Amino acid sequence: MAARSRFNQVNIVVSDMARSVAFYELLGADVADIVVPWADHHRELTSTTPKTSVELDSSVSAPNWAAGWVPERTGVVLGFAVEEDEDVDALVAAAVAAGHPVVQPPHDAFFGSRYAVVEDPDGNAVGLMGPRRDDRRWTPTPPS
Asked: What is the pLDDT of residues 117-133, one digit of tens each?
């Protein structure tokens, strides 16, 4: 039997640790303290979420959930769940006030959630997703 691995981690390489920590804390993430002298070079986002989903999307299908996503763009979208739809809007407003670009303004997405995408200080996409509701789901047309 061939060796197998289990996905268990995402690393975000950042240009300015303090600015990145401030951004993720702005979104409500818990950022673990690390023993000095490593605090300027390595921090960890902690989570109590029991299930984390890793999904693959083609670059031409991404505009279905992020209209501002250009088909030439590839990369990772880090997902953050919020408790209420209003939290998506509030976090986007806070990100904008702090000078972060919006890739997808808050909208009711086809998968039934209030959803938005902002960029962290290094241009990484960060999705903000409200609770899913089946009564808001609809099926988009697949890209050709």
From this structure: 999 999 999 999 999 99
Peptide bond into 71 cis (omega under 30): no
d(CA 122, CA 103): 13
Return all residues near 127 (Cβ < 8 A) that are at least 6 apart.
66, 77, 78, 79, 80, 115, 116, 117
Map tokens 């409500």 to a residue.
Answer: 28
The token pair at 143 is 């890209």
Using one digit for the tens of pLDDT, what is the confidence trace for 45-60?
887 776 777 777 878 8
What is the rounded distance in angstroms from the CA atom of residue 84 to the CA atom of residue 104? 18
Characterize the bridge pairing of strands 125-129 and 114-119: antiparallel
| β pairing state of 44-46 and 125-129 | unpaired
Q: What HEC string does 28-73 produce?
A: CCEEECCCCCHHHCCCEEECCCCCCCCCCCCCCCHHHCCCCCCCCC
Closest of 117, 121, 114, 118 to residue 136, by C-alpha: 114
